[in-house]
Structures are given as structure tokens and as C-alpha cells.
Amino acid sequence: MNDAALIGIDIGKHSFHLHGQDKAGREVLRKKCSRQQMMRFFSNHPACVVVMEACAGAHYLARELKAMGHETKLISPQFVRPFVKSNKNDFVDAQAICEAASRPTMRFVSPKTQDRQILSVSHRMRESLIRDRTKAVNQMHGFLLEFGISLPTGLAIVKRLAAIAEEHDLPVRLATLLQRLHDHFVYLDEQIKMLDKELECQLADDDLGSRLLSIPCVGPITASLLAVEMGDGQQYGSSRDFAASVGLVPKQFSTGGRPNLQGISKRGDKHLRSLLVQCARVYMLHLNHQKGPLAEWVRRLSMRRHSNVVACALANKLARIAWAITARHTRYETGPDVMSV
After folding, report:
1. Are 318 and 282 in contact (CB under 8 A)?
2. Which of 155, 178, 204 delimits the end of a domain?
3. Which of 107, 208, 219, 297 has its C-alpha lying 20 to 30 A from 15's C-alpha?
């Protein structure tokens, strides 16, 4: 058991399945244990390489095992799936993780620090609150429409619900129910604003976040999410690798020596990709006020491409600039070097 140089863990809520291999790739460990038993096992085991899928709880385990002296690696689940044999079970999954990790060309996920995980939780809470707020607004619009009241879209009109109820002389019971829904909307709106302020305060104390804010049309929300996803940026070999991880490069389907490039791959974090595209659209909206080589590149591209294509291309460029700022510890500057990032 102590000969295991590589151990793969199939993570569960209460039980964990371990598969260990020696340096020659032979199976030397096959164990099912609880969380406490697993931590006790690794605390007594010699230093080795521990590999897990990048899923819920993996980043915490990676930090804990690293503190015990082990080398921890995380693999994207999509790269483990091809190594799963027939008759799938938890032990087979753990073995597949070891097989995938032993490939020399395998790409790994950088474990997140505790602060980056907390920041990621803030972003996911904010997304959930925004979805709930949108749901409440749509419900108010739908309920009013059932009583013949059609309102313009947007949040501004919903904030004047009391005046609308008096103007159209709604039934008392309906007005009471709508007021409850409106109170829920106000609560969600306040929570979103509080989270925005917290993210801005955290970003002010973060050196990387403040440098990412120097990118044109990149605000606190996008900058903080970029900082969470990239970390120090060293897990990406180049700026194109980071843009590809966000899904902002063409999807390739080539065969027979004939290249076939399709639309963007849409891999990775959907929320980060949408924020970068929104930043690109804001930049294009104020293009007349922008200066420098980046603005000239966007103007030339806009003359021969559709605006949607330009937005995705500019989002790709912003992602590359963000990686360069992170990896090279610099700030954005409007100069000749911008176009080579």
C-alpha cells in the first residue's frame, strides 16, 4: 500500500473510493472509506501524487492534502470519461482518473485558494439572486396582464407598482398579493446591491483585480470573476489557451487535411464568457470615444464583419489582454504593445 506513487480518488458525499498505482502503473491499492478514514489514511501515507476530478469539494480536499505534503492535481471530468471502462462503478472511475493523470499530455485544473472560492461563491449567489429577481418581475408582468394591464418591460416600471394599482383600481386581494411579490423583489434588489458593494470592496484590496480594471470597459464584476478563474494565470501556456478555456475560439471540425472552423466553442464558464461579450459590446457602443491600436483594430474589423462576429473577436482579445496582465504582472496601456498581446 505504501508503494502507491499515484492515487486517484472518486469523490462522493460520504464515501470515497481510492485506486493506487506504483511507478510502473500496477494496481497496489483499492480502498473504500469515509471522509475521516481517508484523511487519516493520507496523513499516515508517504508523500505521493493525488488526483481527483475537479468537482464539488475537490478544491478543499486539494488544499488539505497539499498541507499534508502530497502533490495534488485536479482533472476536468470530460478528460476522464474516455478512460472509463465498461461496467462503470466507483472503483472504475477512480482507476480512470489514475489512467488519465498518467498521460504526459494531460491538462490539469489549478486548485483554488480559499479566498478565490469565497469570491466564486459570491458570484454564484449574485447570479442566483438576479435570476430570482427576473422571475419575480416576470410574474408581476404576467399577473397584471391577466387583468388587462400591459406594462413596458424593465425594472423601473415595477418599482411604481403602488401607483399602478391605484391608477387601474385593482381588486384589494390582487393588490395585496402583488405587494407581497413586490416586497420580495425589493429584498432581492437590495441583496444584489449589497453583493455588488462587497465585490467592489474586495476588488479594491486585490492587486490583480485593480490591474484588471485598467482594461477598457471591464468593470468590478468582470474583473473579480476574471481574478477567480485565472488565479496567477500560470496554468495556461498562453493567452490563447485562456481564451480557449472560456470558449471564445472557433470550434474545429477538420478532417482529410481540410480545415473546417465553426462558431465559438462555448466551453468553460458561461457567465464569464457572457460578461466578456457584454464588455466588448459596450466598447463597440462607445467606439467613437476610444483611441489606440485596439480601437483601430475594431474599426477595421467592423467594416468587413457582422457586429456579432466583432463582439466575439473583441471578447477574445479582452480575455487575452486579461491573461497577459495577470501572467506578466502589468497593467493595460494604450500603446503599440496592446495589439501583440
Report:
1. no
2. 204
3. 107
State pLDDT tens for residues 129-143: 999 999 999 998 888
Q: In a 3-state reduction of DSSP, which class is residue 250?
A: strand
pTM of the predicted model as reported, rounded to 2 decimal places: 0.81
Residue 202 Cα distances to 50, 59, 116, 171, 220, angstroms: 32, 21, 11, 47, 10
Q: 186 is in which domain, residue-wise?
A: 114-204
Q: Which has more pLDDT, 206 or 43?
A: 43
3-class SS of residue 263: strand
Name every residue whose Cβ is closer than 8 Å to that of residue 7 and which is 6 or more positions away in sequence: 18, 19, 20, 21, 29, 48, 49, 50, 51, 98
Q: How far apart are CA 45 and CA 114, in angstroms?
A: 25
| CA gap 137, 83 in Å, rounded | 46
**Is 107 inside a domain boundary?**
no
Which neighbouring-strand residues pair with 51?
8, 73
d(CA 60, CA 125): 19
